[in-house]
Amino acid sequence: MSTATVKPTTVRIEEGLKEQATEFLDSVGLSLNSYLNLAVRQLVNQRKIPFEIVGRPEVPNEVTWRAMVIAEAHELGILPDDSSPFDNVDDLMSFLDED
Predict the structure, then answer these.
(1) Same domain, yes or no, for 28 and 74?
(2) Which GO terms describe its biological process (predicted)?
């Protein structure tokens, strides 16, 4: 067991976020304090953040959202699919180049 001196540290965490984290950590048998010590120890040992940092998923803009809704309506048969069928890439490209 480590004989290192433990020094109190204040960490500010949003209340709702703290509650969610504590609830999850309780379910796996860890306290928030234990998790923070574990994360900091891994940061020091690995010399990197010990988990992948991902951004929030992008929310489609209005144009993309409308296209998704229309595509789904076509798929469900709510709107008739009046798009031209293409047997080859050349025909598709000609159609796309038309004004």
Answers:
(1) no
(2) regulation of DNA-templated transcription
Q: Decide: 43 and 35 in contact? Cβ < 8 Å.
A: no
Residue 19 domain-assigned (yes or no): yes
- For the full predicted model, state whether its pTM sits above 0.90: no
Structural domains in the chain (count): 2
> What letters, b where the CB count within 10 A reaches 16 and e where it falls short, cover 14-39?
eeeeeeebeeebeeeebeeeeebeee
Please answer whether residues 67 and 61 qualify as being in contact, where contact means their C-beta atoms are separated by less than 8 angstroms. no
CA atoms within 13 A on the CB side of 35: 14
Examine the domain organization and report whether 48 and 66 are in the same domain: no
